[in-house]
Amino acid sequence: MDNLSKDMFVIKGKSIEKMESISRPSLSFWQDAWRRLRKNRAAFVGLCIIIFYVILAIFAPMLSKYGFSTMDAANQHAAPSLQHWFGTDATGRDQWVRTWMGARVSLSIGLFSATINMCVGAVLGGLCGFYGGKLDMIMMRIVDILYGIPSLIITILVMMVLGKGVAPLIVAMCVVGWIGTCRFVRGEVYRLKEQDFVMAAKVLGVSDFVIIVKHIIPNIVGMLVTNLCMAIPGAIFQEAFLSYIGLGIAPPRCSWGILAKEGIAYLRVHPHEVAIPAAIICTTMLALNLLGDGLRDAVDPKLRGTE
Amino acid sequence: MTKYVIKRVIAAILTLWALVTIVFFLSRLMPGEPFTNPKLTPQVIENMNKYYGFDKPLIVQYFQYMGNLLHGNFGYSMKYTNKTVNYIIGQTFPFSADLGIRALTLAISFGLVLGILAARKRGTKIDFFCVLIAIIGTSIPDFIMGALLQYFFGIKWGLLPVALYKGFKYTILPATALAFYTLASVSRIMRASMLEVTSQDYIKTARSKGLSEARITIRHQIRNAIMPVMTILGPTVAAVLTGTFVIEAIFAIPGMGKYYVESVNNNDYSMILGMTMFYGIFLVTANLIVDILYGVADPRVRIGKK
Amino acid sequence: MAEKRETLLELKNVVYSFKTYGGEVKAVRDVSFDVRAGEVLGIVGESGCGKSVTAQCILRLNPEPPGFFEGGEIFYKGKDILKMSNKEIRKIRGGEIGFVFQDPMTSLNPTMKVGKQIMEVFVGREGYTKEEVKQKALEIMKLVGISDSEKRFNQYPHELSGGMKQRIMIAIALVSRPSLIICDEPTTSLDVTIEAQILELLLELREKLGTSIIMITHDLGVIAKICDRVVVMYGGKIVEKGTVREIYYKTAHPYTDGLMHSIARLETNRGEKLSPIEGTPPDLFAPPIGCPFAARCDYCMDVCNQYPPEEYQLSDEHTTRCWLHHENAPATKFKRTKGEAK
C-alpha cells in the first residue's frame, strides 16, 4: 500500500450524488403491483385463460350454426366431431354452443354476485368503520348474528321463494353474501383511520371525503380486488352446486353446473359429456385461483418493492 | 373462560332465533299452496293444519312454529304421506353423519400433514407437490371430483364399489370426494400459517434455548400455527355438509343430503323447510362448539383479552 | 485498564452473507473481536449495519438458508463453533450462551406459560429432575426481579407488561447460568425508566454470577453506562474498537464521531444543534469497494473510494479502519473530540 500517492489524501468531504444513488427507482402502487403480477407466470396464465374463455363465451354461440336449444333426434349423444366440436347431449343439442352459453350464465353470475357483494359490503363496512358510533354498534351486532347463519340455507330458501333463473340466483347469493366483506372492510378501515397518516391529515384540516378518497380507499382497494377475484370462483361453485341440486336456472337455458349434472347421468356410456364441462369448470377455477393468489401477492404492501 | 362461553352461547341463541325467524317468514313467501297436491290424504292435511295453524294470524303461526321447534318437531312431508320430518331425519341422518365424520377426519388430518410438510420442506419438490394438490383441490367442485373417482376407480378399473353404503369399501370413494376440497383448503391455510409462525421471533427464542428441531416444530410452531385453521373449522363443517347433498346423490347413499335434493326436485316444501331448519340448527351448534374449542386452545381468548 | 482477562469467545474474520433473489447480501464482512470473562462488550451501530446478524452468527441462529458463512472462525472456550455438529451447538445454546432478543413482545411464545418457557431450557439436558428445574426457574425469576414468581410462573405472556416480559427473556437466558449472554438491543422497545432498570439488573447479575455480556445497541448512552469495551460497526464492518474511554475521548473514526454528535447530551449548549449524519447506510447488495462510510464522510478522500482502509493499531485495545491514520493523510481534528486524530 505504499504506492498510494499523496494527492489521494486530500479531503473532499461527502458526496451527495453517491448517497442518492443508493435509493431504488420509485414506482406507483399499481405500477409496482402490475410489474409483480406480470412476473408471476402462473397468475398471468390464469389471466389469459379467463380472457380466452370470456371471448369464447361472447362469440362462440354467435358464430355457430346451431342454437343452444335446438334438438336433433337423429344425433343424440354424438361424440365430438367436426360438425359438433364437443358432441351432442341426450336430445341432440350441440354441446359446443351449450358450453359457451353456459359460460355466459356461470361467468356473469360469478362476476355480478361477487361484485355486488363486494360493493355493498365495502360501502356498509366502510361507513361503519369510518364513522363508528351507534350506527356501527348496531350494524355490527346485526352482522355478527347474520354471520352465524349458514349462508347456503338462506340462499336455498330465497331461491325457492323467487323461483329459478339468473336474476333470482344473483339476488339469492347477495342476500347474505356481503357480510364477509362488510366485516373485513370495517376492520381495515377502523385500523387505518387510527393510523398516524390519517391523524396527520385530520390535524391539517383535510375533509372526511378527501381522507376517504386519498388515504383510506387506496390502502384497501388492492385487498378488495384480490377478495373479488377470490370470491368469483366461490360464486361459480355455488351456482354449479345450486344448479346441480335443481335450484339453479330453468331449462332450456343452461349453466356449467347443469351441463355437468346432465353429463354425470351418462357417465358410464358417454364420459365425454361430463368430461368437457368438468374440464372447463376446473380450468376456470384454477385460473381464477392462480390469478387471485398472484394478485394477493402483487398488492401485498409487505412485499412492495421486492422482485 | 366462563364469561367467554356464556357470551358465545348467547350469540348462538340469538343467531338461532334470527334463523328461525327468517326461515319462517321466507316460508310464508313461497309460491304454491301446500294443499293443492292431489296426493295428500286428509290425515296429512289435518296434521299440517295443526302444525302450522294456517287458519290463525301470522304472528300466532310464528309462535306456534317456534314452539314446535322447541319441542324438536320439524314438521311433515307432503310427498311421503304421513311421514314426519323427524322420522326421515332419523332414518337418513346416520348415513350422512357417518360419511361427514369420515370426510372431516380425512380432510383435517391429511390437510394438516400436507400443510406442515410443505412448510417444513419449503421450496423443495415436496412443497411443490403439496401446493399443487392444494390448488387443484380447491379448483374441482366436489360433484366433479365424485364423478371422476367413480369413473376411474369404479367403472374403468373396477377397484371399488360406486354406489350404496354397505361397509368400509363403500365409504372410500364418497368420503374421499367429499374430503378433497376441504383437505386442500386446510393444507393451504396450514402451510401459510406455518410459514408465518416460522418467521416469528419466539421461534428464534426457542432455538436459542438449544431445543431440538423436532421439539421446536411440535411445541412451538404447530401449536401456534393451528389457530387460524381452527377458525375455518366452522365453515369447513358447513362445506362438508353441503357436499353431502351432491355426493350422496352421485353415490346413491341413502343419506339426508340425497333426500334433500329429492325433496327440492319434488317441490316438497314442508320437507325442505324442516330439513333446512335442522341443518341450520346443526351448523349453528357446530360453530358454537368450534368457537369454544378455539377458546380452550388459545389462552389469549380464554383469559378474555382481545 | 484492568488486568487482561481470559478470552471466552473469539471471532476471527467472520464473513456472513444472505442469498436472496436479488443477489448476495454481504451482511457481515470480515469481523473479528473477542469477549473476555466477566466483561461487558458493546457493539454499536445504526440499523442494518450487521450487528444483530453478527450476534446471531455466534449461536448460528440466522436462518440458513438463505444465510451462510462465507468464511471465518468463531472460538468459544477454544472450540470452533462453526465446526460443531447440531447436537453440540444445541448444548452451547441456552446452556453456555444465553440470548436476549430485541422485542420481548414477540419473542415469547403466546400459547405457553412463561414458567414453562423458562423450564424448557433444560429439555434435553441431563442431570435434573423436574422439581429441581422448577426450583431453578422460580429462583431465577426472583433473581431478575419478578415478585410473586409463583403466580407469574403460571401466566401467559400477554398477561405481563413489556418490562416484565423482558425480565422473563433475561431469566430464560440466565436460568442455566451460562458464562455469556448476548443481549440484542434488549431495551429498544421499552420505556426509559424500564430501560434503566433492565440495565441495572444486567450489571447486578454480572456481579453476582460473573457472566460476560455482549450488549448490542444503537444507543451510545447505554454503552457509556455499562460497557467495558466497545466495537463500532458500519456497513457490515468493524470501523473502530477499543475501551469505552478510548472510544469516547480518543475517537479515531469519523463515523464514531458522527454518532457522538447525533445524540443529545446534558452539556449540549442551548441553541446548539444536534448534527445527524446525513444520508443512509450503503446498500449491502453491492457494498462500495472502498470504505463503506466514504459517501457520508466529511473527511472523505479519493483513496477512501478506491481502497478499503487498513486496520491501524492505536493502543493495546484501540484499533480503527480509516485512511485518516495513514502517514500521508492530513492531520485532522474532529468536530467534537477532545483527543485528536493522528
Protein described:
The complex is a heterotrimer of chains A (307), B (306) and C (342). With 307 residues, chain A is mainly alpha-helical. Helices cover 70% and strands 0% of the residues of chain A. The radius of gyration of chain A is 27 Å and the shape is flat. The mean pLDDT of chain A is 82. Chain B has 306 residues and is mainly alpha-helical. Chain B is built from 13 helices and no strands. In chain B, helix 6 packs across helix 7 and helix 11 packs antiparallel against helix 12. The mean pLDDT of chain B is 83. Chain C is α/β, with parallel strands linked by helices.
In sequence order, what are the helices and strands of chain C, one letter per element?
Answer: EEEHEEHEHHHHEHEHEEHHHEE
In terms of structural class, how would the helical and strand content of chain C be classed?
alpha/beta
Poorly predicted tracts of residues of chain B: none
Q: Largest chain interface and its two residue counts?
A: A-B, 40 and 44 residues
Basic shape of chain C: globular
The helix/strand class of chain B is: mainly alpha
* Radius of gyration from the alpha-carbon trace of chain B, in angstroms: 23 Å
Q: Approximately how much beta-strand content do the residues of chain B carry?
A: under 5%
What is the multimeric organization of the chains shown? heterotrimer
End-to-end Cα distance of chain B: 13 Å
Largest sheet of chain B: none
Number of helices of chain B: 13
Q: For the record, give the distance between the C-alpha atoms at the N and C termini of chain C, rounded to a whole number.
A: 22 Å
Major sheet size, sense and barrel closure of chain C: 8 strands, mixed
Strand order of the largest sheet of chain C: 6-7-8-3-9-10-12-11
Question: Hey, roughly how much beta strand do the residues of chain C contain?
Answer: 15-25%
The helix count of chain C comes to 11
Radius of gyration of chain C: 21 Å
The ordered H/E elements of chain B are HHHHHHHHHHHHH
* Rounded mean pLDDT score of chain C: 81
